[in-house]
Q: What sequence folds into this?
């Protein structure tokens, strides 16, 4: 190209644009899959999904074009100033979320959320896992009681909640 | 006068012990989450939505509005003492406020912010009481076609006019609209955009999306950018008094800020960034010459008083389109709207008639909340400072505990948690690539309402799409929306010539 310095295309921006484009195309596919009875031919359930998905596709295409023209990430101060991504912190946090996902059904909320609490704290640089666990257990139990008893949310009692309820002489549900 | 009668009715209900209790709880909770970085009113109200199954609508909305107002108060504390604005409306406050704190004037800065918030809150709430009924009278004349166009205008302003880029704002909006489409179509019973998965037939839960975008995404983004040893210093508060000269210098900025902020909140554009910024520049221009040098150096009290007042007045203004038209112009208002739906209350112009008692009790409670906040805030500053000092690791770990229970509590489903994390990851990348998240929530809640209005309008017109341009009202609103979308771009091209 003449006149312009041949900038390298910013790959992250391109990926973001392609992701939006992909979502738009998936939307179009799903909009097409909606079955319509002929009664609703005029303003049926398909019209709005088609419009929304088409706009999403168009926006994705525009974002891809913007990326090919040099992208927008470079103009965000936060990105420009940022150091390399902290993969260790992100990994620990992700592991915490995953642990919660695995434990929440067999062990119940308090144990799963406590494990997650310890991992997330470690991700943000907390050094004492034992202390975090000592904070986490009463916190998660308190939150469970607040939501179940206070807000009336239905979350079954897990191992720890059952122990506490039994110690209080209450029925475990 | 409708407003006077309404307020009289409202106060008789608002001043009962139960409702005062809800207001107090809301103010307290709101200030606390406003002070805490990384957690805001939208997330808090989303997590508390289950309360709508337990208590009366009046109690729940007094609580939610207390949280909404309280968060505005609390946000200024963080801006001033930590130089880390908790939400977009207090970014400007941090400019002068943090400089004042650095120079040992944190006390006066906090005091002028609190009293300015109070003044603006009262002005804004009076505005709701007196302007609300007028807008309702006008809105009752609107048919579905006009209503749909009004929603389009709302979509355009919240996504394309404010913020960094119209392209990215609109992408966020359409992501929200797409999420709102998922599930069974209410009019025909057809599942839509579900990929055939029965788990998605009930649609994607708003709480899940809000928690994913505001809590999980924030934590992931913070971890991604985390660097050890980056802990900002909390400045000492000092004496919380306004001297006579501070008071004199604050008074007109409060008034101007409140006058500037409220109309901005009322307009469907919503948002608190623009009025706070305008207020800041106005005060900078209007400041007495002998104090002008304080701007940007030692911190000028005018630069805290004005924007803080503008911020709170705009926040009050946001409630006007929500209560009178059922149009949410901020993420918090959108979540409150979904709370109305969970009570089976149809938000919109009929709200003042069918739920008059609720609406006026709510407005009266806003006055109560304002008084509570100004009385509570300054004496309790020591407590807020202690909350500010919660270390980052435990703070984010704690936020994720609430995120987990809020989502898992919806239906005890691990699939919901996976969806939560998925949306959290998308939200993290949205933060990274500077896509605003509020339009997602607004689109998701307002989208289905807009589709309903569209289909009603087209049913009335027997499928004739031209109704939107042949009815003068809807044509005018569409023209404004188009102008809002294209105006700034045409202007930019024009200026470049």
A:
């Amino acid at each position: 190209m003449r006149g312009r310095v041949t900038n390298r295309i910013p790959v992250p921006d391109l990926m973001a644009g392609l992701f939006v484009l992909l979502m738009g195309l998936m939307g179009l596919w799903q909009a097409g899959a909606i079955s319509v009875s002929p009664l609703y031919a005029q303003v049926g359930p398909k019209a709005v999904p088609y419009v929304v998905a088409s706009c999403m596709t168009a926006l994705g295409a525009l974002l891809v074009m913007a990326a090919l023209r040099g992208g927008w990430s470079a103009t965000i101060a936060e990105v420009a100033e940022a150091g390399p991504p902290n993969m260790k912190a992100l990994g620990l946090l992700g592991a915490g979320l995953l642990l919660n996902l695995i434990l929440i059904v067999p062990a119940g909320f308090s144990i799963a959320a406590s494990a997650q609490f310890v991992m997330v704290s470690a991700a943000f640089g907390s050094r004492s896992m034992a202390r975090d666990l000592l904070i986490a257990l009463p916190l998660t139990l308190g939150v469970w009681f607040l939501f179940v008893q206070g807000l009336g949310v239905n979350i079954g009692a897990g191992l720890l909640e059952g122990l506490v309820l039994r110690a209080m002489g209450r029925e475990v549900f | 006068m409708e407003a006077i009668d309404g307020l009289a009715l409202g106060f008789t209900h608002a001043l009962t012990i139960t409702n005062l209790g809800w207001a107090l709880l809301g103010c307290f909770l709101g200030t606390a989450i406003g002070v805490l970085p990384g957690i805001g009113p939208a997330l808090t109200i989303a997590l508390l939505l289950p309360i709508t199954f337990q208590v009366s609508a009046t109690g729940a909305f007094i609580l939610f509005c207390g949280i909404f107002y309280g968060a505005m108060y609390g946000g200024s504390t963080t801006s001033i003492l930590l130089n880390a604005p908790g939400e977009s409306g207090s970014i400007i406050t941090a400019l002068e406020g943090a400089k004042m704190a650095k120079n040992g004037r944190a006390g006066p800065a906090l005091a002028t912010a609190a009293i300015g918030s109070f003044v603006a809150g009262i002005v804004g709430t009076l505005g709701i009481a007196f302007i609300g009924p007028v807008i309702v009278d006008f809105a009752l004349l609107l048919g579905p076609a006009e209503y749909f166009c009004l929603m389009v205008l709302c979509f355009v302003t919240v996504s394309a006019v404010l913020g960094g880029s119209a392209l990215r704002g609109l992408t966020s909006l359409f992501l929200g609209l797409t999420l709102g489409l998922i599930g069974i179509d209410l009019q025909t019973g057809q599942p839509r955009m579900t990929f055939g998965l029965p788990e998605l037939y009930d649609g994607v839960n708003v709480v899940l999306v809000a928690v994913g975008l505001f809590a999980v995404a924030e934590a992931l983004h913070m971890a991604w950018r985390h660097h050890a040893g980056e802990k900002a210093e909390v400045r000492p508060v000092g004496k919380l008094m306004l001297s006579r000269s501070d008071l004199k210098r604050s008074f007109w900025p409060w008034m101007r800020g409140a006058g500037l902020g409220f109309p901005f909140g009322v307009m469907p554009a919503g948002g608190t960034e623009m009025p706070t910024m305008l207020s800041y520049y106005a005060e900078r221009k209007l400041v007495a010459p002998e104090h002008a040098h304080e701007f940007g150096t030692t911190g000028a009290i005018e630069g805290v008083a004005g924007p803080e007042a503008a911020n709170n007045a705009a926040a009050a203004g946001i409630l006007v389109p929500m209560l009178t038209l059922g149009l949410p112009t901020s993420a918090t208002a959108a979540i409150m709207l979904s709370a109305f739906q969970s009570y089976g209350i149809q938000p919109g112009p009929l709200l003042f008639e069918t739920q008059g008692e609720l609406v006026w009790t709510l407005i009266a409670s806003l006055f109560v909340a304002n008084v509570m906040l100004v009385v509570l805030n300054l004496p309790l500053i020591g407590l807020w400072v202690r909350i500010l000092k919660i270390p980052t690791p435990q703070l984010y770990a704690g936020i994720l505990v609430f995120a987990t229970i809020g989502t898992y509590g919806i239906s005890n489903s691990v699939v919901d948690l996976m969806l939560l994390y998925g949306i959290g990851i998308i939200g993290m990348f949205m933060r990274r690539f500077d896509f605003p998240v509020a339009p997602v929530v607004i689109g998701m809640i307002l989208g289905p309402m807009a589709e309903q209005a569209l289909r009603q309008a087209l049913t009335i017109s027997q499928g004739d799409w031209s109704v939107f341009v042949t009815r003068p009202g809807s044509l005018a609103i569409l023209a404004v929306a188009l102008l809002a979308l294209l105006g700034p771009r045409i202007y930019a091209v024009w200026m470049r010539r």
